[in-house]
Amino acid sequence: MKRKSSNKYPFIVLLMIHSALLLYTFRKQEKRKTLLVLLLSHVGLGYIFEILILNLLDAYKYLPKIFKNNYLDNIFGAILSQAIYIPFTAVFISGFHLKWKAKLIFLLYFQVVERLFIRLKLYKTFWWSPLYTTGFLAIFFPLSDKWYELLQKGNRFILNASFYLCTMGTEININYLMAVFGNFRMGRGKVYTWREHFLFTPLYGFVQALITTWFIRRDRLRGKIQAFVIGLVLDWVLYRCGFLKVKNAFIRFMVRGVMVYMASWFRKFIYREIREENEVY
Q: Where are the transmembrane segments (predicted)?
């Protein structure tokens, strides 16, 4: 599944840098539960952005050359960007309440990294520009600060949005792993292309996460049962209509169970433990 390439090392270096930022933040800050929800919410937001810009509009292409399959490789690069590099940085900035001078330094940092990756042919742009990245991050970093503030205040809309985004991001991550290991494919017709798969799968993840959070948010035990059963029914309908292929039905059964468990955990964590943490401090 893997191949030798020097392309992967810059991605690994960035992974180490941003992981260090996140670990330092969690070590120094007291509101670790709130920061964890902030992080997972950012991952979900990042996936929505990447699905629109990368999957649908073909703005750019990542070239880590870790997987032989170009689409898996490209999406893996997107996951590193939207689930690690940018969210870890945003949590660091918001956790330490850094002001605009620090934000400008990070904006310059990402601008330099993106241009360097283009020069080293680790990242290829089509109609996208590094200046667009700077513009979006200039909006995202203050949004992160406000999201963190409202989480601490227990804002109902932000709590609900965080619950959905945490669940949706987890759903998309699990489905990506299932695709890597050959247990999950989506598309049309007899032959499913990877392009089709990565167009359909995010929409599938959005819907499954909506079903799961909707029923679990409304009711505990009955909601878990409803979310599990309806999720399986959706899989069965997609399979019968020819939009879904699975090698092992039991694995999909287990995936739905894991997602119901994770959503239940998110529900307790976000609506109870986050409130308790912010009441203490």
A: 6-24, 36-55, 75-97, 126-145, 157-178, 198-216, 225-243
Predicted confidence (pLDDT) per residue in 5-53, tens digit: 788 999 999 999 999 999 999 999 999 999 999 999 999 999 999 889 9
For 227-280, where are the E strands, in sequence order?
Answer: 244-245
**128-133 long-range contacts, CB within 8 A, separation 24+:** 128/53, 128/59, 128/60
Contact 208, 234 (CB under 8 A): yes
DSSP lists the bridge partners of residue 61 as 124
Whole-number Å distance between alpha carbons of 224 and 242? 27
Tokens encoding 176 = 């990506």
Can you give the pTM of this predicted structure? 0.93
Q: Residue 197 in contact with residue 179, Cβ under 8 Å?
A: yes
Sign of CA dihedral 92, 96, 97, 99: negative
